């Protein structure tokens, strides 16, 4: 038997932001920097998510290497999204968390376009329907 899925205080399923910690933007040369672009983005997203209703986790390689930096936004029973071509900066991290918070309050995980932060509107790569129960 597996672990129970995380839920929020009101009983809804927790939205998770999974950040690829191995992403490297074009032009990254090993030895140039001590951390990957993905690690930089992960630290910024983790900081932006502190005190919110969304959770974060790092994962090595989301297999979107040609579109790094990448994150996935997911919750059990909801539409899931992959975002790519993201800059590892604080404005992008704040936009990712803002979108994830909208995802968390949506019953289906579908967030109306008008609620998408401008900083991430052109960065959606894929969406995945929830698995059947």
Pattern of helices and strands: EHEEEHE
Q: Overall pLDDT, averaged?
A: 89
Oligomer: single chain
Shape: globular
From the 3D structure, determine the CATH topology: Glutaredoxin
Q: What's the number of structural domains? A: 1
Poorly predicted runs: 1-5
The helicity comes to 10-25%
Count all strands and give the number: 5
Largest sheet: 5 strands, mixed
- Tally of helical segments: 2
Strand order of the largest sheet: 2-1-3-4-5
- What is the class in the CATH system? Alpha Beta
Task: Give Rg in angstroms.
Answer: 15 Å
Distance from N terminus to C terminus (CA atoms, Å) equals 16 Å
Structural description of this entry:
With 133 residues, the chain is an alpha+beta fold. The protein has a single domain (15-128), classed as Glutaredoxin, CATH 3.40.30. The chain contains 2 helices and 5 strands, in the order βαβββαβ. It has helices at residues 37-49, 90-105, and strands spanning 15-20, 54-59, 71-74, 80-83, 124-128. Strands 2-1-3-4-5 form a 5-stranded mixed sheet. Strand 1, helix 1 and strand 2 form a beta-alpha-beta unit. Helix 1 packs across helix 2. It is globular, with a radius of gyration of 15 Å. Residues 1-5 have low confidence and may be disordered. It comes from Oceaniovalibus guishaninsula JLT2003. This is Metal-binding protein.
Describe this protein with a few key phrases.
Glutaredoxin, globular, DUF1636, 2 helices, 5 strands, single chain, alpha+beta, five-stranded mixed β-sheet, disordered N terminus, Metal-binding protein, 133 residues
């Amino acid at each position: 038997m597996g672990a129970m899925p995380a839920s929020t205080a009101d009983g809804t399923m927790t939205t998770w932001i999974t950040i690829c910690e191995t992403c490297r933007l074009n032009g990254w040369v090993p030895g140039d920097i001590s951390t990957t672009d993905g690690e930089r983005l992960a630290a910024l997203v983790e900081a932006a998510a502190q005190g919110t209703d969304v959770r974060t986790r790092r994962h090595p390689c989301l297999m979107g290497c040609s579109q790094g930096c990448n994150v996935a936004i997911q919750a059990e029973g909801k539409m899931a999204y992959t975002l790519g071509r993201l800059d590892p900066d604080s404005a992008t991290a704040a936009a990712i968390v803002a979108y994830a918070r909208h995802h968390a309050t949506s019953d289906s995980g579908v967030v109306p376009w008008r609620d998408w932060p401008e900083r991430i509107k052109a960065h959606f790569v894929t969406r995945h329907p929830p698995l059947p129960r």
